[in-house]
Amino acid sequence: MQFDQLKRREFITLIGGAVTWPLAAHAQVVKVWRIGYLAESQRQVDETFRQSLRRLGYIEGTNLAMIYRWAAGGSFEPLADDLVAQNVDLIVAVASPATRAVKERTTQIPIVMIDVGDPVAYGFVPSLAHPGGNITGMSMQLSEIGVKGIQSGYVQAG
Fold it and tell me: What pTM was estimated for this model as a whole?
């Protein structure tokens, strides 16, 4: 009698554990962020970008997938089409031609522009104060910001 009770307990424990396996597996699912990266070619600062992501906890192969597209003297448009078709979570666009290509193809995917000229003059954003839309990032152009810096004495010549 005692032996039967022991087997019953083992059976119930086994079944109970089997029911919780899918729940435990589900709890361990990690979101993998997919970042599209569109540029003319690879640059040394690309590694700095990856290292910064790692420091923030985004590890390629774990919770991050980088999808690189290099124009290499060719057209940015088909590469931008490819990234948008893959429905990445974010697109990093390096330089004005790459930014223009992705801006013309999506209003839904967030775009981070890097090393662009004047984003207002190029029509990427309506204003620096209120960029709106799905584009943010950095400009290398000393337009409004540069003039204000010189006026306030923060930027010094010579």
Answer: 0.72
